[in-house]
User: Which sequence fits this backbone?
């Protein structure tokens, strides 16, 4: 039995946890949900000794635990799969998985590499990842990095396993495998704490749920006698429905972007499509289907091997992201906020305004107007409800979901006519997700933007897109029209998508 | 605190520490020696400090975009030779010789930048090779002997206004401009963003390759400027100019709080860094330390600055648990 007693933690300007008492039983999968910034990650970090509580205690089977570091918690059999992917980019899969327990030949201290790779391979097979164990981590997709983390925890043979949004970039199939493993561990008496913003997962996997709001425990419920609606209400205090946001009438819009037979060797094959002003074109597919690669070609980040791009009816030669932004008005919100989206050490204000500096700078000296900058930052902070102490807060200190909102607001501030948005709600809570959906939908509906929405979240894409292209193995394999037709049900649409996928 | 990307200017803990250390050093030195507070010593010290600032900036421009330049001193050296050639051998007017020399510095920086970005070679390797190339050129062309410069050319390096060296005034203004550039201008902030996270900067529409080239160009320009002023101060274009700049450039930039991983710089910090560096050097002379050990002291000083920074970082990370 793992028990928290009155745990509190304060960060400058925010009470992240406020007297939280909770019990986690062995053989139980316990979900932890709450809005972005509610304190879930903080709680997890306190259990694993990555953070020290200001007040309160953590007990295990009646003993008080006092961890001074993550190593101490590993020794106690407590391991974490963290929200921010923490693997060592330059090393191999095997080294990452076996980091703490490299097998040596006898007592010589010489590493027995074949044995290490064998052990690592066994762990990889359990998570269903058929990759060579010698692969360098930085070449892996986000999903595979996440699976490597899971494999690492398995190798550690943890008795308490904490998972902080472990599925945020996994495909359905990988999620299913992971859930199989977790159920298996539960049956072996492992205590599992599962943080997620995806309610489908919480209901499918977990036995109990505890809800945090503003650092306080709202309550713990058994999931059997709880509906989704009740859970949402516990979490954010209001209801959210999942119906489509409304018709987009995109047929009359001007064609903004047209791609003809685009090829990028090994990444994109023969992609042709067009998107109009006022339209939200969804790119659906499994992770790794080539959607992000296509986006990178469209914004000039990667070279095009063949094919033609037309912007506003004219042939475009996009050579760099700067080009796509300034000459063609195309913006791209990266799926990878830590590595490609944010200057983590800089204030929130800088990240929100970085793409518009030239526009708010004086004519001759090119000094950026601080007043305008701060005004834009405040507009975004208010408009997207970003939880921060203010525009000057260091971006790294924001919770994951709020960092995501900062990423998105950079492109809202830039006000591009064509916007490519890649997985905009990974790690974002239901309430904020709803806000972001409405925001994107509104950009198309009332501001006439042409939007490409890349998402692996089927309810999301079906809720806001009006047309969906389905991707598989680097190709567009199907198109579904009239997604915004109120007569079509979710089941019907998801079945249509599924038909193209399989 | 050294300002990352675009934080509001203000004196944070880091800079405050620098100011306190400088004041202490200053007090100790004035007690140690009667002549320290004389206007002559102050003149010499403030002028020397100004050179350190220029040399440190030359390094800091590269550090800010996440790179480094080992060729700082070598560019200074090469520039000095070109200046000497212009003034003595080709008999150019002083203005033309200076422009030519500065141009060579800029070109050398440009070359570094282009090699790094176009061929995608590490800045360490590129600037290391260029350092040797330039130093060889320097020795080959000059044969090791200094060039004469005309009397009029010495005015800037040796003159003063109300007892304050011209060089110091000039550098104070430049430093102010550089500080403003990083804090407020699109260009400066794009340099900082490039160093902060190159991928994110590029995907935000910043041409990071171009920024890196610019950083090296500025680095070359400042090294060249330091060299020209140094020749003016010395009253001759001496080929050994720049020989000790490499260590100076790192020491002052690092003590002054320039981030080694890019994205962080502070004008005031570099100013204080050069003051500390100067005072320690002066102090070593004052206590009659064996000059043969001077480099060891400098090395220790750099290490100390990095250790202090590390300890601060670890301490603040502990508090936040990241
Ligand atoms: N290192 C830090 N310094 C300052 N404030 C912090 C730090 N880490 C977290 N916070 C703040 O503490 C609060 C709780 O953050 P936490 O990361 O625990 O939220 P979360 O519930 O995990 O959110 P998310 O769903 O977005 O991941 C937030 O307001 C966050 O801004
Ligand atoms: Mg979190």
Assistant:
């Amino acid at each position: 039995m793992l028990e928290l007693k009155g745990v509190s933690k304060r960060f400058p300007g925010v009470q992240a946890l406020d007297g939280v008492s909770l019990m986690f039983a062995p053989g139980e999968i316990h979900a932890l949900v709450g809005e972005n910034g509610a304190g879930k990650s903080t709680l997890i970090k306190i259990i694993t000794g990555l953070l020290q509580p200001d007040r309160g205690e953590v007990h295990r089977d009646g003993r008080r635990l006092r961890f001074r570091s993550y190593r101490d918690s590993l020794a106690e059999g407590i391991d974490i799969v963290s929200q921010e992917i923490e693997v060592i980019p330059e090393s191999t899969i095997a080294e990452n998985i076996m980091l703490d327990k490299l097998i040596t030949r006898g007592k010589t201290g010489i590493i027995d590499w074949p044995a290490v790779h064998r052990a690592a391979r066994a762990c990889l097979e359990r998570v269903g990842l058929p990759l060579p164990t010698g692969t360098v981590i930085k070449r892996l997709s986000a999903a595979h990095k996440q699976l490597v983390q899971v494999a690492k925890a398995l190798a550690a043979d943890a008795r308490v396993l904490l998972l902080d949004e472990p599925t945020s970039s996994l495909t359905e199939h990988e999620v299913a495998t992971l859930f199989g493993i977790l159920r298996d561990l539960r049956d072996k008496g492992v205590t599992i704490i599962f943080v997620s913003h995806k309610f489908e997962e919480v209901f499918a996997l977990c036995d109990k749920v505890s809800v945090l709001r503003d650092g306080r425990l709202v309550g713990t419920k058994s999931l059997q006698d709880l509906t989704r609606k009740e859970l949402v209400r516990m979490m954010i205090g209001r209801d959210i429905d999942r119906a489509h946001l409304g018709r987009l009438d995109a047929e009359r819009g001007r064609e903004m972007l047209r791609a003809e037979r685009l090829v990028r060797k090994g990444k994109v094959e023969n992609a042709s499509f067009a998107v109009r002003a006022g339209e939200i074109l969804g790119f659906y597919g499994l992770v790794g289907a080539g959607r992000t690669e296509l986006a990178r070609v469209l914004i000039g980040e990667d070279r095009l091997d063949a094919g033609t791009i037309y912007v506003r009816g004219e042939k475009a030669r996009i050579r760099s992201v700067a080009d796509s932004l300034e000459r063609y008005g195309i913006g791209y919100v990266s799926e990878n906020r830590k590595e490609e989206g944010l200057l983590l050490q800089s204030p929130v204000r800088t990240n929100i305004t970085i793409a518009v500096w030239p526009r708010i700078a004086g004519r001759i000296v090119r000094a950026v107007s601080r007043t305008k900058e701060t005004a834009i930052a405040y507009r975004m902070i208010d408009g997207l409800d970003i939880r921060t102490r203010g525009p000057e807060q260091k971006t790294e200190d924001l919770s994951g979901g709020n960092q995501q909102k900062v990423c998105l607001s950079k492109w809202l501030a830039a006000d591009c006519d064509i916007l490519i948005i890649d997985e905009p709600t990974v790690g974002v809570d239901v309430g904020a997700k709803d806000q972001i959906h409405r925001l994107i939908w509104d950009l198309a509906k009332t501001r006439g933007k042409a939007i490409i929405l890349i998402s692996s979240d089927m309810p999301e894409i079906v809720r806001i897109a009006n047309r969906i292209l389905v991707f598989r193995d680097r190709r567009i394999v199907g198109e579904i029209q009239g997604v915004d037709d109120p007569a079509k049900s979710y089941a019907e649409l998801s079945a249509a998508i599924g038909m193209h996928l399989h | 605190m050294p300002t990352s990307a675009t934080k509001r200017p203000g004196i944070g803990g880091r800079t405050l520490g620098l100011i306190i250390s400088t004041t202490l050093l200053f007090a100790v030195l004035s007690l140690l020696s009667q002549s320290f507070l004389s206007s002559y010593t102050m003149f010499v010290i403030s002028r020397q400090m100004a050179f350190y600032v220029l040399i440190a900036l030359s390094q800091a421009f590269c550090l800010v975009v996440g790179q480094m330049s080992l060729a700082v001193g070598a560019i200074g050296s090469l520039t000095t030779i070109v200046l000497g050639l212009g003034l003595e051998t080709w008999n150019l007017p002083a203005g033309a010789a200076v422009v030519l020399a500065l141009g060579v510095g800029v070109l050398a920086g440009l070359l570094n930048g282009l090699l790094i970005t176009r061929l995608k070679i590490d800045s360490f390797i590129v600037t290391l090779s260029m350092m040797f190339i330039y130093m060889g050129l320097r020795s080959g062309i000059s044969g090791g002997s200094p060039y004469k410069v005309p009397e009029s050319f010495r005015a800037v390096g040796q003159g003063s206004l109300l007892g304050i060296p011209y060089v110091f005034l000039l550098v104070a203004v430049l430093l102010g401009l550089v500080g403003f550039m990083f804090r407020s201008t699109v260009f400066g902030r794009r340099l900082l963003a490039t160093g902060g996270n190159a991928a994110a900067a590029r995907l935000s529409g910043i041409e990071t390759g171009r920024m890196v080239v610019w950083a090296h160009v500025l680095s070359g320009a400042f090294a060249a400027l330091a060299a020209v002023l140094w020749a003016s101060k010395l009253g001759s274009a001496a080929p050994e100019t720049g020989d000790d700049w490499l260590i100076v450039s790192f020491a002052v930039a690092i003590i002054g709080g320039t981030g080694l991983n890019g994205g962080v710089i502070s004008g005031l910090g570099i100013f204080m860094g050069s003051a500390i560096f100067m005072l320690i050097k002066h102090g070593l002379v004052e206590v009659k330390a064996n000059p043969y050990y001077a480099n060891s002291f400098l090395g220790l000083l750099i290490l100390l600055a990095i250790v202090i920074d590390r300890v601060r970082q670890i301490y603040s990370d502990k508090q936040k648990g990241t």
User: Anything to note?
Assistant: Chain A touches chain B at residues 11, 45, 50-52, 299, 301, 320-322, 324-326, 332, 334, 339-347, 349-350, 354-355, 357-358, 361, 365-368, 370, 392, 396-397, 410, 414 (CB under 8 Å). The pocket of adenosine-5'-triphosphate (ligand 1) is lined by residues A 11-12, 14, 16, 34, 36-42, 83, 387, 397-402, 427, 429; B 320, 322 (CB under 6 Å). The CA atoms of residues 467 and 481 of chain A lie 5 Å apart. Chain A has three domains: 2-236, 240-329+416-502, 342-414.
